[in-house]
Design brief:
With 174 residues, the chain is of the alpha+beta class. The protein is built from five helices and twelve strands.
């Protein structure tokens, strides 16, 4: 190995280590990613804070992780379940969600969604409170492919509700 190869291989990576993701907890009832809560400034305790202080999105495709800010507030999180190795919490307890999780498991844990969109290719369960939207996407209509958590609900837009065929009142009733 030449000196330049050695120096290049010693260059620090901008990507967080895998261990950072293994210990990351996504709270699906308090809408938190690590120490950061949706709608609040990103916590400096989170490994993605430095990157988000420089730009509005931090994406790590290797770990299926994409997080964004808007006006310096934690705005959205998109997880690709096949690659995301982190943990989940709901109602105060750690729960197991993986790329093998089925629709019935989500319904049993989270109850009936505000809206269920089903087409020939996929199922999306929309959980809404008027301010936050939580989506569980099943691209094969069976297994959990993606989770989206956002404070910019897609279904808050009347045109989007029309496109999805939503017949329920907006905002959702608590």
């Amino acid at each position: 190995m030449g000196i330049f190869s050695f120096l290049r291989s010693q260059k620090p990576s901008n990507k967080p280590p895998h261990q950072a993701y293994l210990s990351l907890v996504i709270d699906l009832s308090e809408f938190r990613c690590g120490y950061s809560k949706l709608g609040e400034p990103v916590s400096e305790l989170d490994f993605f804070a430095t990157a988000l202080s420089k730009r509005n999105e931090f994406q790590d495709e290797t770990h299926g992780f994409d997080i964004g800010t808007q006006e310096d507030l934690f705005d959205d999180l998109f997880l690709t379940m096949e690659r995301f190795p982190g943990q989940f919490r709901h109602s105060g307890e750690i729960i197991r969600l993986t790329a093998q999780t089925g629709i019935d498991e989500i319904l049993a844990r989270f109850g009936d969604p505000y809206w269920r969109d089903e087409d020939p290719d996929e199922v999306i369960l929309f959980y809404e409170d008027g301010l936050v939207e939580l989506q569980f996407e099943f691209p094969d209509k069976e297994k959990l492919g993606f989770i989206t958590m956002t404070r910019s609900p897609l279904l808050a837009d009347g045109e989007q509700r029309q496109r999805y065929g939503v017949t329920k009142a907006w905002p959702p009733k608590s």
